[in-house]
Amino acid sequence: MEKIFEYIDEHFDNMIEELQEICKFRSVIGDEEGLDKSAKYIANKMELLDLNCKSYPIDEGNPIVFGEKTGNENKTILFYNHYDIVAEHPIDKWKYSPFKGEIHNGKIYARGVSDNKGGLFSRLHAVEAILAVKKELPINVKFLVEGDEETGSTSLYRFAKEQKETFRQMTKADLCIWENGRKDEDNNPWVRYGVRGGIGLELVCKTSNVDVHARMGSIVPNAAWRLVWALSTLKDVNERVLIDGFYDKVIPLTKEDIKVLNDFPFDEEKLRARIGNRKFIDNISGYEVKEKLYTVPTLVINGLESGEMYKSKRLINPYLASAKANFNLVANQDPDEIIDLLRKHLDKHGFEDIEIYITGKNTPVRTPIESEFTEIMRKSAQKVYDKPIVLELTALGGGPGIVFREVWPEIPIIGIGPANTGSSHHGPNENLSLDDYKESIKHIVALLYQCIKK
């Protein structure tokens, strides 16, 4: 393995140049040129590595790029990544151009370098290094790279449904390495055991056809008040969701889960200082903060809108009100069931007129901490990192993990990768540390070889 690591060190500049090149493509949804160039660049890289590569066109979506190569052992790792990115706005907050891949102070700056092009290319570069030195892979590898993750992976879900057997064969593996991972502020590499789920929605209340003067508020229903009353039935002052059955399918924590949460490094003082918060809800601290953050589902109001608040002063009784909200779900909760429970709850409380519009949904997926791959992760990381891995019960972000689990219910889904807590996902000045990127490449190499020792 040392020879492979030496190859990475010697060819690292070339690897960074390739990462810079893919980051020059503005693969934002709606930018067809940037998306097309990204998909073709990835496919070309796979072909250069002699992977069996195919791009699957998607109606009303972007191509899925798939590549695979057989190794010596009959074991398979599937890498899931995406090449679409979020828009670069606000552009005035960027210190450097978001689409040049500039390097400053040991970091590469670009939109998408961390989420998710760096994660993808660290894996491709690991395969490159192994093949360059050993001429063959220790185990089978597969790459499934989609182009619609940032907008809900609708094309991936549709592909899995319409081409069931093809998707089944594409995703057959012993382990799925999810799109990314990260290091924390103390340089500890994290290993993530699944993805959170969620539902994005909008609640709309319409009481008539036009606004009327405020003096008519005693006889004409006020949409803003009615929406507030409806919202007040969803959650109590102790932050508990009041929808019947909302918590019924939440999986109890195992002893190992509790140990992982206890051991998980979480600087609550630093978080409160950063966001200007004096105390958390119910004044919780320590273990309880981590438990609620990672294992307790909730409902959040993202914004409210009604009436005339942004122009001139008008004394009106508004006819229309809306609230954007989202459910944060945990393992075993079904978004469709939660949506149904929400509808029943509103109807039960006399709010049949409140309309629900779903803007997005993801099903949560968790991999048991007791997975046999935990020890493999530990041993492979020891060959690269100065510090031991930190187990994260689940990533706080979402993703289409359920589409893999519906086909292969037992497949472990684990996230590792080159990002860090300062990578600024979805924000200005998105970046990746060059040192972290190199270590991530080496970790993938070590992981592939560690799998044959299992």
UniProtKB/TrEMBL annotation:
Keywords: Hydrolase, Metal-binding, Protease. Pfam families: M20_dimer, Peptidase_M20. One of its GO terms (biological process) is proteolysis. It comes from the Bacteria. InterPro entries: Cyt/Met_Dipeptidase (IPR051458), Peptidase_M20 (IPR002933), Peptidase_M20_dimer (IPR011650). GO terms for molecular function: metal ion binding; peptidase activity. The keyword Transport does not apply. The keyword Cell inner membrane does not apply. Residues 194-352 form the Peptidase M20 dimerisation domain. This is Acetylornithine deacetylase/Succinyl-diaminopimelate desuccinylase.
